[in-house]
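Attaching the record inline, Q. Sequence:
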Amino acid sequence: MNKDKERPDYILFSVIVILIILGILILFSVSAFISQAKFGKTYYFLNHQLLFGLVPGLILAFLAFKIRLDFFKKWAFILLLINLVLMLLVFFPKIGVESGGAARWLGLGKLTLQPSEFLKITFIIYLAAWLSSRGAKPRSRIWTCSANENLSKFHYGVKEKLKNSRKIFNQTFIAFLGLILIIALLLLLQPNFSTLGIIILTGILMYFLSNTPLWQISLIILLGGASLIPLLKIVPYRAERLLIFLNPELDPMGKGYQLKQALIAVGSGGIFGLGLGMSQQKFGFLPQTFSDSVFAIFSEETGFIGGLVLILLFMVFFWRGFKIGLNSKNKFSQILAFGITFYIVIQAFVNIGSMLGIVPVTGIPLPFIGYGGSHLIAELIGVGILLNVSKQNT
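Structure, as predicted:
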C-alpha cells in the first residue's frame, strides 16, 4: 500500500475534536464552583482532567493510530490477560481503592486507575481477534449435496457438516459464554453492573455481525435476561433503581432525586438554554454534576438546541464508525471497528438516556465529556484504533 494514500476518516476525526473541545468547556463550566469550594482553585478538576486524562489519552491514541493493526491482533490475548490481572488487584488491600462501597480503582500514589474502563477496549480487541480467526462459517448450509450424488456420499457430507457444526458451537458459543462469565464475576464483585451491561451488549452485537447463527444470539439474549432475575434479588438496590426508573415519584428525595433534578435541569434550559456558566442545578442541587449528570447541566445551559447538537455528534460518530467497519479490508479490522463504535455510542446514549428518563440511571460516563481520566484515556485509545482502521481503507 502506498503510504502517501493512507488517510484517516477526517469527518470522524473532526467529530472527536469537537467533542473533546466541548468536554473541556463543559467541564470548566460545571466544575468551577465545586472546585473552588473544595480546593480553593477554580481550575482544579479541569487541570486534573487535562493532565491525567486528555494528555496521556492523546499520546496513547496517537500510538494506537500509528501501530500496525496486526500488533493488536497478535497481542490481543496478552492485553486482555493483563487487564484481567489488574481487575483482580483492585481487591487487594493497599493496592485497591474503595469508594462508595465499590472496589473499582487501583491507587497510584495520589492518582487512581479504573481497570474496568480499559477492559472494555481490551475485550473488544480480543473478541475481534478471536471471532476473525474462526476457520469455518457458521451459517453454511448442511444440505449441499445434489440429487445426482449417491446416498453414501450424502450421508458422509451430512455427518461432516454436523461434526463441523458441533466444533464451531464449542469454539464459539461455549467459549464466548465462558469469557463473559469470567468478566461478569470480576465486575459483579466490584460491583460494576453498568460496565458489565456495556460489555455484554457490545459483545453480542460483535458476535452477531461476525456471521454467527441467529439462534445462538437468541439463546445468549435469553440467558442474559434470565440471569437478571437472581442479580436483582441478590442485590436489592438494583431492583429499587429499576422501580424508581419506572416511577421516580416513589422516592423523589432519595433514590429518585438525581433523575428528578436532571429532568428539572433539562427542562429549565428551554430551547436555547440559560447560557454557558448560568446553570442553577450545578450549585449543589444535582448530584454528580460533572461526571454522570453532565448532559443535564449542558442541556440546561445550551437548551434543546445544544442537547440536540451533542446527540447529532454521536450519531455522526456512529455513522462514520459503522462505515469504516463496512469498508474494512479484513474480518479482524471490520469486527474491531464495529466493536469500538458500538462501545462508545452505547455509552453515550445510555448516559444521555438516563438523564432524560429513558433508561435507568447507571453511572456510565458520557464519552469524551464526563469527568474521569480512565474512561477518557480508554475512549481515546479506541478512537485511535478506529482511525487506524479507517486509514487502511483508503
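The radius of gyration is 23 Å. Residues 3-392 form one domain.

More tomorrow.
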